[in-house]
Structures
1.
Amino acid sequence: MDISRLVEEAFFAKKAAYAPYSGFKVGAALLAASGRVFHGCNVENASYGLSVCAERVAVFNAVSAGERCFKAIAVVSDSEEYCRPCGACRQVISEFGSDILIVMADNKGNFEVKKISELLPYSFTLA
Ligand code: THU
């Protein structure tokens, strides 16, 4: 699958975003080595701190389906700026490999790609 298709998948995932508090809808699409794509959206809560980002929902969705090997994750929002994963999501993505590509897109579908190891150098691991 090419990267722009993965970005389209992330826009599809964003449709399910539940963001009544921030109004900031985010979608993520995670490409597994198997070729399967897993979607995630942000899910907010009235107890704000319980809200979960789209990227982590996508990772947990994939891992709970038995996937552990990932190639890339695309992240989109309605912003004109590229959507950057937060620190917590960077750590969660890092758990599954340092070469995973992070595709950060704007609301028009333009994107920038970095490896997770560039976005979170010296990540915490038990290795
Ligand atoms: N959010 C994400 O889902 N992913 C990001 O990369 C950045 C932030 C969500 C969390 C919250 O629901 C909303 O965006 C505003 O911070």
2.
Amino acid sequence: MSKQSQLNQLNTKMSACSLCALRPGCTRVVPGAGDTNAKIMFIGEAPGKKEDETGLPFVGAAGKFLDEMLGAIKLKREDIYIANVCKCRPPSNRDPSPEEVKLCWPWLLQQIQIIEPKLIVTLGRHSMERFLPGQKISEMHGHAMRHEIEGLGLQVFYTLYHPAAALYNGGMRETLLKDFKRIPKILEKIKEEK
Ligand code: URA
């Protein structure tokens, strides 16, 4: 079965999920979007208002900034896959709870298993925490590392600030852009090491 068919099946199951308390309070499940054969998978936190309305990830202000940064490294949305650690919008855009992230993990795990990205780019501390627990994003941003994850094996991660946090913070915005522009070199290095 093609990766697209596998993801379609998974998305259908995801849409019917009611494992945590977020589903009754949101409009729709936001599974993820992009190239199912992508080498890079970006993982954010959870859908916001616009994402909840459209069913697509990163379509608000943070998404526009993300597109701008992708453009800076000559990539488009269609070249990558993007998903979130939580697939449903938390009320009033509050942080997802550890329990909600835990209950949503099997969906994200299966997405990664199907897509098999060479590089996972975590956006923000909630995404980083899922894969690299107990770290500080102020220390970890801009660092690429291999890390063993149950169900995935050894996987390369690159941790970045969240575009929404950096959007209106001049210093963080510059740092995020600088970190972002290192992505092509990191991907190149992964290819060389294979
Ligand atoms: N912020 C996220 O982390 N994910 C989205 O999909 C939108 C905003």
3.
Amino acid sequence: MPSVLFVCLGNICRSPMAEGIFRHLVAEAGLDDTLKIDSAGNSAMHEGEAPNPRAISVMREHGIDITGQRSRPLTSQDFDDFDLILCMDEGNIKRLDRVEPENHNATVDLFLNHVNGTREDVPDPYYGHISDYNATYARLYPALQALLEKLR
Ligand code: 4NP
């Protein structure tokens, strides 16, 4: 199984939710020993912080605890350490070149494009309301189920 890194801007909302859901699905499938999963941010502005309280709350409602996660910035090393780097929006992909090495073997893609060929963003819920976090969860969950099916 390939290693997977989810990337968003702050690493406190979308990518920690994606990481949490994917870890949950992978564990449910009994595959947690075979798959390296992590998340990172395009910026270091929230480095060391736990996920946003609204992200924690929505995930908790679905029985998934992400309180142990801490925001970290994406690094050049990630392009060697992960097979698959999946970005939540086009802006995240554009910002990768700040740290992306000239040569690497990682596959970099827009998350929803990689999963189902739709060149769509997972919109940033940070400036929205709790309903936007519910929408993020609803968007991520089936896509992560599809990702697991694709990878196994
Ligand atoms: P994320 O959301 O990229 O899904 O973690 C954001 C979190 C923080 C900010 C923007 C987006 N911010 O500007 O601080």
4.
Amino acid sequence: MKTLYFRFALTTIFIMFLSGLIAFLLSNVYYQIKLKPYNDRKITQMASNIASFYETHPTVNLDHYLKGISHLGFQMLLIKEDKQKVYYGKPFSQHNLTQSTINQVLRGETYHGIVQFPKQAFVTGFFDDELRNTIGVPIDANGKNYALFIRPDIEYQFGEMRIFFAVLVALMIGLSVLLVFIGAYYIVKPIRVLSRATQKIAHGDYNIQLHVNRRDEIGQLAQHFTQMARSLERLEEMRQEFVSNVSHEIQSPLASIQGFSKTLQANDLPPEQHQHYLSIIEEESSRLSLLSKQLLTLASLDRDKGELDITSFDLADQMKQAVLMTEWGWREKELAIDMDLPSTIIQGDSKLLYQVWINLITNSIKFTEKGGMISLQIVNTSKKEVVVRIEDSGIGIPKQDLPYIFDRFYKVDKARKRNHPGSGLGLSIAKKIIELHFGSIEVISAEGKGTTFIIHLPYM
Ligand code: ADP
């Protein structure tokens, strides 16, 4: 497998070599344009000095003189009038001087072989010790004409410098490669840690500790990843709690249905008791049916986030309709219903909002003693939102329970449950629907005095 570590290291090394190559080509261009003419001028100056010294001191033995100079680090060719060639210093690698060039210098002209040396991408010409890569100067002494071709002996003059640069470059490359591998290891390490953490999460273990103290993108990634793991953990806890709540809610009606149907199988029951047990079975089955309906509603609200079927309708009409729907409940408990519902046209998902009013009104009926009062109000003062208040004079909600009543399956206390059966889902469904309409729901309650739900619904 090509690991990220190797990819990273190899890419960096490739980039290093590529940069080296490009740098060489560019510096070669610089040599050709700037340094080569300078080098040519410099060597021409040296050659002229050598020639003029001999010309002004004609008694000097030319052979000894040139030999001495060659020992200072020069390669030379002396051509005499009779075409005799004498070499000094290190031999030239190629003898490629044309006869016309030789004649030209013998005639008294200077030959600029260094600056004329052909330009090539990978050849600087600086190191090429060919005869044509020389400077040719005429020497005129004692009435004799000579041609002197000269170039520096690079190996002699720069020998140790070349070794120095070779060692420098080799060490630079070697150390860079080594450090790239070490650096890549530390850069890639946190990604490996993250990868192991994802595997842990995939196996259901959310307890991950990432010690990535970096402030760069990888540090941020690790931080976000830890947050994601925490949310997943919470989500998993919520899911487990939800499943256990659902099972519990299903279990108790099923157990009572099972128990009563067993009892009903005994033939010697008096008819009233028979009837009573049947009505309990019916009640429990409708509880189960309501529960499954509520669970389906919640599931679809969770799934189709924000997908509302928006229409325009009169909120007052809808709330009156909900009061009519629950008439049987409040009539039976002889509750007074007070309505202050001015006609208000709103935009929203009418089916879902109807569910909200039904849930809130049935709760008010359920938790209000016989002869109590329920008040419904639409307050329509702002142009931005409409406020709905649903108030009852019921048993109220203890202060410590108030923060939780919108949680799924939350019921105030077990003792109440017997008198007021319910799933604990009604308020969470109502809240979810209101939030999908970008509104809010709040509760004010005092134990023994009553409860008020206040809903803010913005006009869409
Ligand atoms: P349930 O199906 O149990 O009514 P809800 O989610 O509708 O579930 O309500 C959650 C809990 O909040 C109820 O069990 C009840 O204890 C409390 N509650 C809701 N509405 C009222 C109210 N109007 N008066 C008093 N308590 C209420």
